[in-house]
Amino acid sequence: MSLIQESFPVGPLGCNCSIIGCSETGEALVIDPGGDVDDIISRLTELGLKPKYLLHTHAHFDHIMGSRGMREKTGASICLHKEDQFLYDMLGKQASMFGLSADEPLPVDKFLSDEEEVSFGKYKTAVLHTPGHTPGSLCFSVQEKDSLLFSGDTLFSRSIGRTDLWGGSFDKIIKSIKDRLLCLDDSTRVIPGHGPDTDIWTEKNENPFL
User: Fold this and answer.
1) How big is the CA angle at 129 (ends 49 and 55), to the nearest 5 degrees?
2) How far apart are CA 136 and CA 189, in angstroms?
3) Closest C-alpha among 165, 35, 159, 46 to residue 100
4) Distance of alpha carbon 61 from the chain centroid
5) pLDDT at residue 144 above 90?
6) Domain total in the chain
7) Which of 19, 24, 69 is nearest to 44 (CA)?
8) pLDDT-derived band of residue 146, with 50, 70 and 90 as boundaries?
9) Residue 153 to residues 21, 120, 188: CA-CA distances in angstroms?
10) Are residues 79 and 86 in contact, defined by beta-carbon separation less than 8 angstroms?
11) What pTM value is reported for the model?
12) Whole domain around residue 67: which residue ranges?
């Protein structure tokens, strides 16, 4: 049995969509399906995986534009933090601000809570509520032999998420990162919502915002 993990950019702003799956059961999670639904499904098929949940780190349009298509084509449940419901409902307005159009989102199937665990096959990920980029921003932590953190737009390589959009707060994002993320093991690999991977040690020591 092994943990399968792949991340690749999707959608108009290159959101990092991540697939994590259990090789034994074939159950998987898709984190931030921000677009290019057919490409995501093709990769799942190639890996022999079936998505159980669609996890969203937050509800900015570039992270949720593929959620409806993924739900309709795979049956995977849409999961989000309740405090980002207002952004989720604003999908069309958000997209139009960037000259794009988006289908109306489907209802959220499951609202995630802080410190909840989401299981897929023989594995699980812990939900960390990390407000600041948005009120309902989440990170997903997988503590296995090689620990992973899917940090969304909260923490980037040597940077942090912007806080000048709806419900953003600089003070809250700094507190979230310091209290919830930097306490993870230094070797934890961080897969952010955009851009290259990093790790907790690097961000502790080299992130100018921290």
Assistant:
1) 20
2) 22
3) 35
4) 12
5) no
6) 1
7) 19
8) confident
9) 22, 23, 17
10) no
11) 0.97
12) 3-206
Nearest Cα neighbor of 66 from 110, 114, 33 is 33
**SS3 of the chain: helix, strand, coil, percent, to 5:** 25, 30, 40
Q: Is 163 within 8 Å of 147 (Cβ atoms)?
A: no
3-state secondary structure of 93: helix
Token couple for 106: 């489907």
Confidence bin at 145 (pLDDT 50/70/90): confident
Which amino acid belongs to residue 61?
A: F
Spatial contact of 128 and 99, defined as CB atoms under 8 Å apart: no
**37-47 helix and 67-74 helix, angle to the nearest 10 degrees:** 50
Q: Residue 149 carries which side chain, given as an amino acid letter?
A: L
Phi first, then psi: give them for residue 94, nearest 5 degrees.
-60, -50
- CATH number for position 27: 3.60.15.10
Cα 33 from Cα 20, distance rounded (Å):
13
